[in-house]
Amino acid sequence: MKKLLQVDFDFQGPFGQEMVQAMTGLAESINQEPGLIWKIWTQSEKDQLGGGVYLFADEASAQAYLAMHSERLTQMGIQNIRGVIFDINHALSEINHAPIA
C-alpha cells in the first residue's frame, strides 16, 4: 500500500533558484531511491524551513528513506528534523485529483 512521507526541518537556505543550483544533483539521486514514486520539494524562506512530500510504494521504502535522509540531514548540520509517514485515504484523495493512482 502506498505511503505519503512528509519531512520538514530548520533550513537557512539557499532558496529558490539558488536551491535549484545547489540541489539538482541531490534531486536526481533521490529518483534512484527504492520505492520512490515522486517528491515535491517544499521551502519557506519566511519561516526558514525546508523539506518535502514524498509518495512511496510501501511503508518499508518510506521508513528506510526517512532513516537514511534524517542521517544525511544530521550530517549536514541540519536540526529539528520532523518526518511523518501517513496512510492515504484513496477515495477522498481521488475526489480532489491527487496524483496517487
Automatic annotation (TrEMBL):
Q: What InterPro entries does the database record attribute to this sequence?
A: Dimeric_a/b-barrel, YdhR
Q: Which SUPFAM superfamilies does the record match to this protein?
A: Dimeric alpha+beta barrel (SSF54909)
Gene Ontology molecular-function annotations: monooxygenase activity
Q: What is this protein called?
A: Monooxygenase
Please give the Pfam families that the UniProt record associates with this protein.
Answer: ydhR
| Keyword Metal-binding recorded | no
Q: What UniProt keywords are attached to this protein's entry?
A: Monooxygenase, Oxidoreductase
Answer whether the UniProt record assigns the keyword Oxidoreductase to this protein. yes
Traced from the root, the source organism's taxonomic lineage reads: Bacteria, Pseudomonadati, Pseudomonadota, Gammaproteobacteria, Vibrionales
Q: Which domain of life is it from?
A: Bacteria
